[in-house]
Amino acid sequence: MRSEISNSVTILVITFFHLSWAGIDGNEKFGIDFKQDTFLKNGLPYRECSGEMHYFRIPHQYWKDRLIKLKKMGLNTVQTYISWAFHEPVEGTFRFKGDYDFVRFIQIAKELDIYVDLRYGPYINAERDLGGLPSWLLAKTNKTRQTDPVYQDAVANWLDKILPMVKPYLYATNNGPITMVQVENEYGFQKACDKKYLNWLRDLTRKHLGPEVVLYTTDNPIDSDLECGIIDKVFATVDFGVGTDPSVPFGKLRNLRSKGPLVNSEFYVGFFDTWTVKHETRATADVVRDLERVLTYKNKNTSVSIYMFHGGTTFGLQNGAAFTNGRFYAQIGSYDYDAPLNEAGDPTDKYYALQKLFHNKCLGKPVPEGKKLEVSPKMGTDVIKLTPFMDLYQFVRHGSTKKSQNPRPQSFEELGVSYGYVLYTTKMPDDSENSELVINGLADRATIYVDKVYQGTLSRTEEKYSLKIKGKKGSSIDIFVENQGRLSNGPSITDRKGILRDVKLNGKILKNWDHAFVKNWEDIFDHSSPMRDALKLDANQTRISKKDSKSVPTFLRANFVLPKEGPVYDTYLLPKNLIKGVVYLNNRCLGKYWLVEGPQVTLYTPGVWLRPSPQENEIIIFESDPSPCVKDNNCEIQFIKKPIIDAPTRRSKP
């Protein structure tokens, strides 16, 4: 019965495609020839050789450089997402300038004669917090990526904003660079199979972009995923990487779509990293071998997009998280991905190996003779000393945080907190030297203090939710909770943060909670933020107990001038003697470090974000864990010329 239904659907879909796209009239059009199983561009057979690159992971000053390198590797198309949360962090407040100007990214591609496959989502995964959906959605609804009036209303408002910006750049109607537009992303993995929602999203996209543009889906080559993720009247593709015989995923796709070009829209040349787990790599020889198998599959005009061509960096705090083998793992800031261009945009051995392959198979000619691409210069500095200027409790007292009281602990989403931390405070009901504190609803990590004395750390990754604490009746119990990243993929990404259930002490529920929070820790040192006033506090005002090597979370600062005048180059920030925290450079959030876990140690620092000598630069670090270096007065950083993203960890691949 299933196969009969699938065949009927296939016939209907093919008929629709012929009516809508098969008629190529010699104008600047892009479509599909289902008889020949190929794309057609201007009436001629066409193969897309593409590379994935995310504008939101690259400073806008470097977009052109990275796209030029993509073309020189032999690729004709760039594939990129649009990250909703990146552009609308607060409902109704949009950012589209500078690093947020995705239209400029598309324009640069056109100037370089590079085509664009645009993946607007609204869900994108991309190892982003909540898969790129804005966290404020979770304050409005429990349902995402399905038929729900509240969610659909928000999506419609978002698409009303961005799709009119996209339409002028469609190839089929306006001779722009955009040849295809993806609807949703790997929807089958969600397992919701809400065809009503998918059809609604397709129709809304068509309403904005018109009938001429090719829409497509991407799904894992699993029968159930494909059946759930494929959308009627939308072209379907699959994704897979090294070690996969292409006949298997393409065969599964052919069971549901018997005609049309075959496309691997995400061929994984590397993989993402998570904290505490060994750095991921893929051998160049294996990548070249298996990519060649895809490009020559049955001697057809197979298309492919390598994921990633250039990974870049998840700056700020919008990294996602994943469940692997049933355990929560937060993703790191580096998105190097073992890609042909490394995190700083420099070519690797993998770049040159793939350059030969793509020039041969896609361009039909050898790589032009000449010099290899130059590796961009990097710079280093001497050690820079950090000075503590404010601890967590001063931060709360200063008034930079918002306050909320409630009988029960509230989630980040209830408080309107996007990323970062919340301080939960209540009172100890009785004297105790050995009380058991239990936080079963913890998401994701908490450091515990009683009267500002560190008691221990609880962690979702470690699946540790209880510890012994001691204090007196009326003692302050402070639970400092970190959002380590909302789940970016999986059957359910509704991943709320904070304390989600009652907290118990010796089996009794603790009530009457105070909450201190900042809505978005990414922007706390912006010039318009009240935190700017806090920077005027003298370092001597900081009061940290000297009884123990333990301390409380602390803000540290350094003002420095680069060692010499002249060009400012990219570099890597190396924290020294620190444990875990967040780095801000000249009001920008570079991201997190976690030295005791790895694999990432350094933070990629674009030269365009540094101020040239003799101008002064400002580094602010929030050391979120109790750190001996504060007491010992030896918290430091240094800028170095090479990254460290493969440091030892206590786990291999889970």
Task: Break the fold down into its secondary structure elements and pairings.
Blueprint: H1 2-20, E1 30-33, E2 38-41, E3 44-46, E4 49-53, H2 63-72, E5 77-81, H3 84-87, H4 102-111, E6 115-119, H5 149-166, H6 171-174, E7 178-182, H7 195-209, E8 214-219, H8 223-229, E9 235-239, H9 247-256, E10 263-268, H10 284-295, E11 303-310, E12 321-324, E13 327-330, H11 349-363, E14 384-385, E15 387-391, H12 392-398, E16 402-406, H13 412-415, E17 420-427, E18 432-438, E19 442-443, E20 445-450, E21 453-459, E22 466-471, E23 476-483, E24 498-499, E25 504-505, E26 508-509, E27 513-517, H14 531-534, E28 554-560, E29 571-576, E30 580-585, E31 588-594, E32 603-605, E33 617-623, H15 628-632, E34 636-640
Parallel strand pairs: 4-5, 4-11, 5-6, 6-7, 7-8, 8-9, 9-10, 10-11
Antiparallel strand pairs: 1-2, 2-3, 12-13, 14-34, 15-28, 16-27, 17-23, 17-27, 18-22, 18-25, 19-24, 20-21, 20-23, 25-26, 28-33, 29-32, 29-34, 30-31, 30-33
State the gist of this model.
The protein has 15 helices and 34 strands.
Written description of the protein model:
- With 654 residues, the chain is of the alpha+beta class.
- The protein has 15 helices and 34 strands.
- Strands 4-5-6-7-8-9-10-11 form an eight-stranded parallel β-barrel, surrounded by five helices. Strands 16-27-17-23-20-21 form a six-stranded antiparallel β-sheet, with no helix packed on it.
- Helix 5 (149-166) runs parallel beside helix 7 and helix 10 (284-295) packs parallel to helix 11.
- The protein is globular.
- It starts with a helix and ends in a 14-residue tail after the last strand.
- Residues 1-27 have low confidence and may be disordered.
